[in-house]
């Protein structure tokens, strides 16, 4: 069953002025679509290798699967983590967990921004539920998959590849990551936390 590019959950210009329509078109229609295509191609290569009993190319297939699957998953999450009605601060259980694990929303935000702003090259800032510690953790991801931890569930992700912001913010990644907080869909993040804790 091939993977499919999900539609954006809002119009391309819905997040303006924080993210312009041109950036959203390019990012969703070209970049995210490219990861879906890459994932389907990698799965086809794996199937062909299994059918032929020839795993001589497996190293490259594993690399393509990890990169493109992670890219597809993170972008799908990223779109739903944002909303034209977003911004503000989390409430209820999510707010309580953030206060427990980061002392305050301000400290959480400062750590999340620093993690996102200092990703080396292309990657992501990630807030994730870590079941072993029963806690929220902030991670960096280089590319889409490096520096990941096993078993954690990402609930809030911020794409800091240059394609995510360069058309609008040029090299000012710090302005882009700050703007992200104006469109975060905290209801979506809270629902993802609730699901991850079950
Ligand atoms: Mn991207």
Quick structural overview:
With 198 residues, the chain is mainly α. It has helices at 21-52, 58-80, 92-102, 105-117, 166-169, 173-180, 186-197; strands at 123-130, 135-142, 153-159. It folds into 2 domains: 21-80, Fe,Mn superoxide dismutase (SOD) domain (Helix Hairpins); 92-197, Iron/manganese superoxide dismutase, C-terminal domain (minor pseudopilin epsh fold, 3-Layer(bab) Sandwich), CATH 3.55.40.20.
Please specify the SSE layout and strand pairing:
Layout: H1 21-52, H2 58-80, H3 92-102, H4 105-117, E1 123-130, E2 135-142, E3 153-159, H5 166-169, H6 173-180, H7 186-197
Antiparallel strand pairs: 1-2, 1-3
Helix pairs in contact: 1-2
This protein binds manganese (III) ion.
DSSP strand (E) fraction? Answer: 5-15%
What small molecules are bound in this structure? manganese (III) ion
Could you give me the name of the CATH homologous superfamily of the largest domain? Iron/manganese superoxide dismutase, C-terminal domain
Q: Quickly give the CATH architecture of the largest domain.
A: 3-Layer(bab) Sandwich
Name of the CATH first level of the largest domain: Alpha Beta
Helix content: 40-55%
Strand order of the largest sheet: 2-1-3
* Structure class: mainly alpha
What string gives the helices and strands in order? HHHHEEEHHH
pLDDT averaged residue by residue:
98
Number of strands: 3
């Amino acid at each position: 069953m091939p993977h499919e590019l999900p539609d954006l959950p809002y119009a391309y210009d819905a997040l303006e002025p924080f993210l312009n329509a041109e950036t959203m078109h390019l990012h969703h229609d070209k970049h995210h679509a490219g990861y879906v295509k890459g994932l389907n191609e990698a799965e086809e290569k794996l199937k062909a290798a299994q059918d032929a009993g020839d795993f001589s190319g497996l190293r490259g297939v594993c690399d393509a699967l990890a990169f493109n699957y992670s890219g597809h998953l993170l972008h799908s999450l990223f779109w739903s983590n944002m909303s034209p009605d977003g911004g503000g601060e989390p409430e209820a259980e999510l707010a309580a967990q953030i206060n427990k694990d980061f002392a305050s929303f301000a400290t959480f935000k400062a750590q999340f921004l620093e993690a996102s702003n200092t990703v080396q090259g292309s990657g992501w800032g990630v807030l994730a539920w870590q079941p072993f510690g029963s806690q929220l953790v902030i991670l960096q991801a280089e590319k889409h998959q490096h520096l990941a931890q096993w078993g954690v569930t990402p609930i809030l992700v911020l794409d800091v590849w240059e394609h995510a912001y360069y058309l609008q913010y040029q090299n000012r990644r710090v302005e882009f990551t700050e703007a992200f907080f104006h469109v975060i869909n905290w209801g979506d993040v809270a629902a993802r936390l609730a699901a991850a804790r079950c």
